Amino acid sequence: MTPLLSVKGLTIDIVQGKNIFSAVRDISFELGEGEILGIVGESGCGKSLTALSIPGLLPQAAEAGSGSIFFEGRDLLTLPEQELCRVRGNKISMVFQEPLLSLNPLLRIGRQIEEPLLLHGKKDRAGNREQVLDIMARLGLPDPPSLTRAYPHQLSGGMCQRVMIALAMICGPRLLITDEPTTALDATIQTQILELIKKINRERGTAILFISHDLSIIRRLCRRVLVMYAGKIVESGKTEDVFKRPLHEYTRGLIGSIPERKRKGSALANIPGKVPFIEEQLPGCPFAPRCAKAMERCREAFPEAAFFDNGRRVHCFMAGSFFKEARL
Ligand SMILES: Nc1ncnc2c1ncn2[C@@H]1O[C@H](COP(=O)(O)OP(=O)(O)OP(=O)(O)O)[C@@H](O)[C@H]1O
Ligand SMILES: [Mg+2]
Fold it and tell me: What's the pLDDT at 265?
């Protein structure tokens, strides 16, 4: 089956004066129709740039240096801006971390949820209003008619995020990209938003690219996961497999750092060191400087992919030994 989204050899460069640094380096992945795919990794690993490159929303300093992003048979990277506008907010939409920053403080909620319809040429205001009320009700927003008249500052963070999701869903996109959608929210609200995302996927068949630095959230939501480190995808596979048997030393460290109830209060098994700045990239595996298992050759070349069951893909020279070790 042809995937809905197919990213091949994507590199995203950051231009700083006369210098160019790659923040995302030669990544490839696919997202199936109706699938929920997670991207996880520490801060600065390139998750957001990857997400933003898909609907063509990269910040000014960044540009896709090479590769392709196929969606519905067309390479979004080569699509003229006018064509891309027809895709953005319509077939592909995005929800970000800070809902209050994404909403216009001066416009009523109803008008904002209607905006994508107007942008995509739907000028029948009465028909639009029906659709706005309908999506709000479907997404469990309370009392849609009065909520449409409210302004963003009158709503809680969780409610603003539901409004953002309604806005993202109004045109019935095939792909919804969410970048840390629950990070700014407290735990109970976080759970409600995750349930809402699951419901959208289940009932509408919308494919979801879900970005988070939080592995436990990824585990609750995603069927497959990509683990990113310093602009590279170092491991990918079915979430269940990755959690049960992580095969990259970085993923092993991330999973070891998840706070569990039984360990509450005790120190986290954190990975020492931090993600390198894009200016400090060295040859070889980018994780080598922090890796307890690093060997000489890890500093020389980025490991080729090793493949395991269920389409599992790992870029680590130790993957085979980790695999055997876990089976014993
Ligand atoms: N607008 C920008 N200008 C300059 N450098 C940038 C810009 N955006 C991103 N970068 C660089 O690209 C790297 C990857 O950024 P990105 O925002 O994709 O990381 P991330 O994985 O989403 O991190 P976080 O978890 O903090 O959101 C950053 O470390 C930063 O060095
Ligand atoms: Mg980010």
Answer: 45
